[in-house]
Amino acid sequence: MERRSFLKMSAALGCAATVTGCNSGSSDVNVVPPKPDFGPEKINWSSCTCNCAASCALKVISQNGIVTRIESDNLGADKGIELQGRACLRGRASRQKIYARDRLRVPMKRVGKRGEGKFIPISWDEAYSIIAQELRRIIDTYGNDAVYWQYASGTNQLRAGGRESSQRLLNLLGGFLDMYGSYSAAQIVPASAYTFGEIASSEYKQMLNSDFILSFGFNPAETRMSGSGGSFDYSLANHKVESIIVDPRYSDSSLGAESHWLAIKPGTDAALCEAIAYQIISKNRHNQVFLDTYCIGFDEKTLPASAPKNGDYKSYILGFGDDNTPKTPSRAAEITGIPEYKIIELADKLIAAEAPFITQGWGPQRQANGEQTARAIFMLPLLLGKVGIAGTNNGNWPRHYHSLGIMPIGTNKVKAKIPCFLWTEAIVNGVNMTSVEHGVQGVDKLKNNIKFIWNYAGNTLINQHSDTFKTSQILQDESLCEFILVHDVQMTPSAMFADILLPDIMDLEQTDIVANPGTNMETIISMTSAVKAPFEAKSCFDVCHGIAKKMGVEDEFTEGRTYQQWVEFVYESSRAKNPALPSYKQVIEQGLVKVPQTGSGIVMEKFISDPIANPLKTPSGKVEIYSERLAQIAATWILPEDDVISAIPKFYDTWEGARDNETKDEYPLQLIGHHTKGRVHSSFHNIPWLREAVEDAVWMNPVDASARGITPGDAVIVTSKRGSVRTVAKVTPRIMPGVTSLPQGAWFKPENGVDMGGCVNALTSLRPSPLAKGNPQHTNLVQIVKA
User: Fold this and answer.
1) 20 to 30 Å CA-CA from 11: which of 100, 321, 380, 436?
2) What angle do helix axes 329-336 and 340-352 make, rounded to 10 degrees?
3) d(CA 488, CA 455)
4) Contact (CB, 8 A) for 520 and 534
5) Taking each helix axis from N to C terminus, what angle separates 563-577 and 540-550, rounded to the nearest 10 degrees?
6) What percent of the residues of the chain are helix, what percent strand, and what percent coil, each to the nearest 5?
7) Is there a contact between 372 and 360 (Cβ–Cβ < 8 Å)?
8) Distances (CA, A) of 172 to 167, 383, 711
């Protein structure tokens, strides 16, 4: 709020105090104070572009450039609109985020040690000069592959004002070390690609055509809870048909619905799937014609010639494979914690279903054996032949789609890519990172360690990365990574480690066009801000434009277009590919335009109807239950002990898993993390409203709490091999015994070797998963004691 407006409000409130405070016995004691005059109200449409990816519409009411309140999509049935994309409590708290105390105001330069948070203000021109000088020094000294563009997801869907601006600039300078994968879905993406040729799934709306829903770690009521998110479709479906949720935690997606909760030990979903497969195959209820026609490697008939004898999936399940172990329900009961009769009952229900919708969230795959978990779940609809028809899914997570593209970033001349989770490894050991040991892509081996980090709109630098205490130590050593640029909206834990720290503008201050992908409607939103960006905040496009001038590539960066012209250019390019989109002029004038979604939303529908004319993108053109590519990787990659890559889906025990009894002697509880309604990862953590609405506490079963003398609300210390966190205990039967869960995204706040902020990543490991080299955030063993 500007000082002038603040003084006007203070004067009005002072007047109110005077009127109501004098002569308390008088009849006019409740006189209504005069309303401060901020000028006429102005209404603009905007969007919450935080990284749940829904990009819900926000109706922004402002006066004299100051947001006074936030509303949501209110275009109702009276206008012929079928659906409203109602924003959740996070988007509706955007006003609080704009005016948060820790909002970054001016460019700053570090003057203390990295991580101390000591900065002095500098001008934008000085900031541009320092960044340009450091970029040039690093490139000239080491090469472009020493410049790393940091994985981040604090903003999504901006056409021209987001992360693409920085990637475009770096490519004009010769390129940068890029990354692949994500912290959210690193394991499931290659699992899907090696099985189906790409990441694909049915849309949420197909749940409404199902007669049975089986989900693993699927929790849209907290992760996709907006009016156009997955929670809408899922809540309609699971009130209509039987729904079973397999999850260590009784999540909000189960509450209030006629659902069944199967509590499972983290990391053991694949063992459950194998037992269901055993029931299906041993009862001869698998669809042999489907498996022969569309799949490779179910049994010896379709097994590739390169495969070993009995290397097929059927032999493995029935106990004729190399381990000679039938994957029976009794075996799975011991591993998973689910009673044998419940497993048999679940298998029978799946067999009986005409159109089972089988899906998974991203939690089960965010494990040390996450790739195998994802592939094991894929097997259930394949065995039944229930794919490509209405009401079914291929076992992947359900999706929404939108039509808009992004700003072109040009060509990156640096061919090397690293898994996004291994950037700290690339700081300390980059020159030794290889394709066969660390999953490096594009080259056999890296030439350089990371020396420059460009971190835009992301808290992954510290808060969302694993083993936060060790990560802090790596970044504090200036002889390793020599320069860190952070451009963000608030003083996050990651911002504390910047050498140059730049203030970004927020969603409500942005002008752009985004898409809100709903079930039957895609909502195109024109973000036309009437809000004044506070202090000296600048967008990523403006920052990159300023640096481009200093480095002599301004003309190449802008191509003669202003920012708004880039937005129009990108939008019209998208419209050329999808003529159903409204014109740019219409979007700008209306602010919010609904476009009907087309297509059935049934995954693999064309492939199932004609597999010859519509082959999959796998080498065989079919579903690869047995993958020769994975067999080759398993034979040639260098893996740590206990890590497994296999040609067919297999459950295996992992380090700090459910059956790591050696580690359990000291750390007896499994720990997972879960998403809460009050944050999107770490975004919105600093909003007091949301901290009051959603409690940050470690979930414990009463059995585990009682054994430790812990009662609800007690302060506790959670400790793993990596570090300790102080938080409070939530004692609840909504989590199974032996398992605990700490909400992820709380901001890291170290004090004397203990994180006082409740950051789960102070406990998690930097050891990656085998294939994707992905984030194993839910594979942890801990001890919890009363503080």
Assistant:
1) 100
2) 120
3) 8
4) no
5) 120
6) 35, 20, 50
7) no
8) 9, 49, 58
Nearest-angstrom CA–CA distance, 10 and 4: 10
219 vs 82, residue with greater confidence: 219
Tokens 């106990």 -> residue: 319
Q: Among candidates 655, 645, 641, which has minimal Cα distance to 439? A: 645
Compute φ and ψ for 427, nearest 5 degrees. Answer: -75, -45
Rounded CA-CA distance 641/638 in Å is 10
Task: Please report which helix (H) or strand (E) contains residue 501, including its range.
Answer: strand 500-503
Question: Which stretches within 521-583 are classed as H helix?
Answer: 540-550, 554-558, 563-577
pLDDT over threshold 90, residue 115: yes
pLDDT of residue 14: 38
Do 189 and 219 form a contact (C-beta atoms < 8 A)?
no
- In the structure encoding, which two tokens stand for residue 35, read together? 């309303």
Question: Greatest CA separation found in the chain?
Answer: 97
Pairing outcome for strands 57-63 and 356-360 = unpaired
Query: Across the chain, what does the average pLDDT equal?
Result: 92
Burial zone of 141 (CB within 10 Å; 0-12 exposed, 13-18 middle, 19+ buried): exposed
Query: What is the distance between the alpha carbons of residues 119 and 535, in angstroms, rounded to a whole number?
Result: 17
Closest CA to 686 of 498, 532, 494, 501: 494
- Decide the pairing of beta strands 592-596 and 521-527: antiparallel
Beta partners for residue 487, in sequence order: 456, 502
Strands (E), 56-114: 57-63, 66-72, 108-110
Residues 718 and 782: beta-carbon distance below 8 Å:
yes
Reported as a single tens digit per residue, the pLDDT across 400-442 is 888 899 999 999 999 999 999 999 999 999 999 999 999 999 9
Question: Which residue's structure tokens are 């935080």?
Answer: 50
Angle between the N-to-C axes of helices 124-141 and 540-550, in degrees from 0 to 180, rounded to the nearest 10: 60
Whole-model pTM over 0.85: yes
- Contact present, 499 and 110 (Cβ < 8 Å): yes
Q: Which residues contact 397 (CB under 8 A, 6 or more apart)?
A: 185, 188, 201, 218, 359, 360, 361, 362
Q: What is the pLDDT of residues 273-295, one digit of tens each?
A: 999 999 999 999 999 999 999 99
Per the listing, tokens 């101390």 go with 116
Strands 452-456 vs 483-488: parallel, antiparallel or unpaired: parallel
Backbone φ/ψ region at 786: left (φ over 0), alpha (ψ -120 to 50), beta: beta
Residue 686: CB atoms within 10 Å: 19
700: part of which helix (H) or strand (E)? strand 698-700
370-384 and 269-282 helices, crossing angle to 10°: 20
* Structure letter (DSSP) for residue 438: H
